[in-house]
Design goal:
60s Ribosomal Protein L30, Chain: A, homodimer, 2 domains, transferase (chains A, B), PurM-like_C_sf (chains A, B), ATP binding (chains A, B), thiamine-phosphate kinase activity (chains A, B), ATP-binding (chains A, B), 7-stranded mixed sheet
Chain lengths: 342, 342
């Protein structure tokens, strides 16, 4: 919760309710971050929030303190940058908040853990309306609340564009974490959640194609299969990850980490292919490509020795061989997923 | 450790070793982040690092797993934005890395805890030289290593300017956290570490005044009194915080949180005043103002019932009254500290 001290010189920008920067438009509905100030803004963001039972010290001190019931803590972090990971002319601040929490939560789930808390660092231009920061926080609290977790601390700073950096903490409940390295030949690969939807939605937004409201929505706010990470761990999942970069790319990490070949069966991906076929046609792409290479749905994929638990469906098999991922026995020659610096 | 999936359209920038953006100049010494790619860059950042004993799962999976020995975990986060919190024409990437870790570590220390691990999200322009990201990580590891902790996970994304977001985790070792709310009338206020140095150094940099190398250095890399947070907690500190926004501002949080008046004695601040007197004269400011209002040194300030432990020096007293901070019994009318959105 600390702030920085004396620092680099700032260009003094006039306080105005009609400044425009980074999509955050002060339209007369209330004060900007500059007008309100950091501490009053933090007070607003924190006021009335209900912390989870395991939070010993919540926001308002130098750090938060949480119970770690089984003597371990799971931790992951993801940063979203405006213009790179979201656009404020597509997403509301509420959507951005939900997405930022969801993608971190999926990383915790994919270890076989439950989310216990989040901390959030948020940078925005000083002329951002305070109400928009509040909407962001509301979205975060809604998504986190669905997990039984809250936001226990954060930082609020000035930045040329919105930057949202979330760290999620998780609790394994006494079970061993499910790593990427445990897949064994002879096992099966299964998925919980959706594939290809976010990528389809992105293309629709990008090409300005209307309709397909569910898919376009799904790109803005993913729907990870919360709770299925623990289900998979309890069912003996050997290896697990979430689909953030694309099914092929993320299963590639399991294949590499485990030293195995994973083969996907297109027939078993039919439900996902069908869900994006019409949108893919409208956008002029192959639906299979969206399912194999589209990320950000934050489905969970895992390897099981034999049976898969309820909520999971089989999509492939694990074999010995040079580590990699094949599709119906062949190397996929289409797009392989998102790269950060392309 | 996950990355984002398909996303907003990017302007395709040419790969060039002479692009300039955000102070990160590719001068032919090696590949840029775009040329190297995210995963090979992460591999470089992670290679050869030695994780602490309590790290069950380190970098390379969806999340890290740490031991929380006493069944609690302390957590805090701070974000640094290029041009706002640091300048790459003043600081080396190594300096930025050290500062980012130090300011988070001080928040953990000020709870009476020790740092157990860090996660880092780093955003930078794609044409940033990979070697500069490596320097940033080296600085982080140096600072963290001095605390017996390491970096257990992170995220690496494209951003128009450098953004460094650190989350620190800490361990209380079975003692209760020291909050801001525990100060009682009749107690004494003490400090461990330095005051005013970073602010003096900032002014020297800002005004282009040479000499005073130690002070200018101190602005780039603070020197928190590592270990003194635990010392204070074990000595029965009632309340504690670190000086990130300025002594008056940060003690103001203790005064407000505890419902007390804190009075500082200028005579007891002499060592700090003397340390910045010559630089203050060169910069044309009052040295006392630097000591009272300069932040970012990340000294620790705490309230004790009577005696203070070794390494701490008394600077004031705690009394009943309308919550606030006075200086020699009077309200300070100078600058009160850093505000995020000024």
């Amino acid at each position: 919760m600390s702030r920085q001290g004396p620092n680099v010189p700032q260009v003094a920008a006039p306080i105005s309710v009609c400044d425009r920067r980074g999509g955050a438009v002060a339209d007369g509905n209330g004060p900007t971050l500059r007008q309100l100030g950091e501490f009053p803004m933090i007070d607003r963001l924190v006021a009335g929030r209900r912390q989870a039972a395991g939070v010993t010290v919540g926001p308002g001190d130098d750090a938060a303190v949480l119970i770690a019931p089984d003597g371990h803590v799971v931790v992951t972090t993801d940063m979203l940058v405006e213009g790179r990971h979201f656009r404020l002319d597509w997403s509301t601040p509420h959507d951005v908040g939900r997405k930022a929490i969801a993608q971190n939560a999926a990383d915790i789930e994919s270890m076989g853990a439950r989310c216990s808390a989040f901390v959030v660092a948020f940078g925005a231009p000083p002329d951002t309306e305070a109400s928009r920061a509040q909407e962001l926080a509301d979205g975060m609290w809604q998504e986190a609340g669905g997990l039984g977790a809250g936001i226990v601390g954060g930082d609020l700073v000035a930045s040329p564009q919105w930057v949202v950096s979330v760290t999620a903490l998780g609790d394994l409940g006494g079970v061993a974490p499910v790593l990427r390295s445990g897949a064994r030949a002879g096992s099966i690969v299964a998925v919980a959640g959706e594939l290809g939807r976010s990528a389809a939605g992105y293309l629709l937004w990008h090409k300005g194609i209307g309709g397909f409201d569910d898919l376009r929505r799904r790109h803005l706010v993913p729907r990870p299969p919360y709770g299925q990470g623990i289900v998979a761990a309890e069912a003996g999942a050997q290896a697990m990850t979430d689909v953030s970069d694309g099914l092929l790319a993320d299963l590639g990490h399991i294949a590499a980490g485990s030293g195995v070949v994973i083969d996907l069966a297109v027939d078993q991906l039919r439900p996902d292919i069908e869900a994006v076929t019409a949108a893919a046609a409208a956008a002029g792409v192959e639906p299979l490509s969206l399912v194999l290479s589209g990320g950000e749905d934050h489905a969970l994929v895992a390897c099981f020795a034999d049976a898969v638990p309820r909520g999971w469906r089989v999509i492939g098999t694990v074999a010995d061989g040079t580590p990699g991922v094949t599709v119906d026995g062949r190397v996929w020659t289409g797009s392989a997923g998102w790269q950060s610096f392309d």
